[in-house]
């Protein structure tokens, strides 16, 4: 039994926090992962706890409805999210991302099973920041952020984490479907594709859930409608800016300076202020304009939200049929290049 546990732990660590092969890192990650898994209790037991607020208990009950719906959608759920873990920190892990000074290509870390990924996870923010400091500031851009949830890709029973209960109803349902996509479809060394696919299906699945529960005129979706339109404006804007910036770096290789780079970032913010800010909420525009831009942050955007149009076109081509799209998405696991296969399928036929 102990040997089996250790084997599963090793596999789970690969999915939980990607790393190099430093022994100290692996041991520390193993301990943290074990603590998270060892604190799991059944959701029914958590619902009886006096330490959770009524609102947290309501979110827990919603999570159970969401996991059942994800299973009905054809996603691999098994016993995932039937357990609960109370964390002793705001996030379950902290990840660091790194990109060269004049390049949006992310620095990657390699690990067995998962392959190359553009981030490295740590139990604490301090550890992630220490990792970021290993990359000279005059050669790299770094970005550290907290993560509220993760998927062990089926190697462990993933719990609902206390960090997930801060989410809105829509975002919680979306997140559970998103993480269930990872447990269902995962392509080694294709992190950007995996995350964008999970984002697309998460959005789609959450919309289907609230229409099923609340009807076609779902109040939840109606409230989100304008917010999603605003978000789409920002995503469309950033997709184009990231494309243009990558070309600018390539065309001006060897001619750039930190000053020119910052001027370029300021131009991006100025264009946002002129073209996007008037159409989104004041809080959204202020948040974007106050956020320091760097290559690592923009590379993170490219991983999760860059150019979702091809997923939209593929879904439309399949008659906006969720089952057909999921079957198609699963077929991409066997593709040599899933990005190219998606693009080829989604491209309009020219006669």
Strand order within the widest beta sheet? 1-2-8
Number of strands: 8
SSE string: HHEHHEEEEEHEEHHHHHHHHH
How many angstroms does the end-to-end distance come to? 61 Å
Question: How many separate domains make up the residues?
Answer: 2
Helix content: 55-70%
Mean pLDDT: 89
Low-confidence sequence ranges: 1-21
Radius of gyration: 21 Å
Helices and strands: which structural class? Answer: mainly alpha
Can you tag this structure with a few keywords?
351 residues, mainly alpha, three-stranded mixed β-sheet, three-stranded antiparallel β-sheet, 14 helices, 57% helix, globular
What is the element layout, followed by pairings?
Layout: H1 2-16, H2 23-38, E1 41-42, H3 43-46, H4 54-72, E2 83-85, E3 93-100, E4 109-111, E5 115-117, E6 120-122, H5 125-132, E7 140-147, E8 160-161, H6 169-184, H7 191-214, H8 219-251, H9 258-275, H10 282-290, H11 295-304, H12 309-317, H13 322-331, H14 338-346
Parallel strand pairs: 2-8
Antiparallel strand pairs: 1-2, 3-6, 3-7, 4-5
Helix pairs in contact: 1-2, 4-6, 6-7, 12-14
């Amino acid at each position: 039994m102990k040997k089996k546990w250790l084997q599963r732990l090793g596999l789970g660590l690969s999915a939980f926090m990607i790393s190099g092969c430093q022994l100290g890192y692996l041991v520390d990650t193993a301990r943290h992962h074990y603590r998270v898994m060892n604190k799991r209790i059944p959701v029914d037991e958590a619902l009886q706890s006096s330490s959770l607020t009524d609102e947290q208990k309501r979110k827990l009950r919603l999570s159970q409805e969401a996991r059942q719906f994800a299973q009905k959608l054809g996603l691999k759920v098994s016993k995932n999210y039937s357990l609960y873990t109370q964390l002793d920190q705001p996030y379950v892990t902290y990840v660091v991302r790194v990109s060269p000074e004049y390049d949006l290509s992310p620095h990657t870390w390699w690990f067995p099973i998962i392959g190359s990924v553009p981030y490295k996870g740590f139990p604490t923010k301090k550890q992630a920041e220490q990792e970021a400091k290993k990359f000279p500031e005059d050669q790299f851009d770094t970005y550290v952020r907290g993560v509220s949830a993760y998927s062990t890709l089926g190697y462990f029973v993933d719990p609902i984490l206390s960090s997930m209960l801060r989410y809105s109803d829509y975002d919680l349902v979306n997140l559970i479907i998103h993480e269930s996509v990872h447990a269902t479809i995962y392509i080694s060394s294709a992190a950007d594709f995996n995350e964008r696919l999970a984002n697309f299906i998460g959005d789609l699945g959450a919309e289907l859930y609230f229409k099923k529960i609340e009807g076609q005129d779902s109040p939840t979706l109606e409230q989100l409608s304008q917010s999603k339109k605003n978000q789409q404006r920002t995503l469309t804007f950033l997709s184009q800016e990231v494309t243009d910036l990558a070309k600018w770096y390539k065309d001006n290789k060897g001619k750039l300076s930190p000053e020119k780079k910052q001027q370029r970032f300021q131009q991006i913010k100025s264009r946002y202020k002129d073209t996007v800010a008037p159409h989104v909420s004041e809080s959204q525009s202020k948040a974007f304009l106050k956020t320091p831009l760097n290559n690592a942050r923009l590379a993170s955007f490219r991983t999760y939200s860059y150019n979702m149009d091809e997923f939209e076109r593929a879904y439309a081509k399949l008659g906006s049929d969720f089952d057909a799209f999921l079957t198609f998405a699963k077929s991409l696991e066997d593709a040599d290049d899933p990005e190219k296969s998606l693009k080829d399928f989604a491209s309009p036929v020219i006669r």
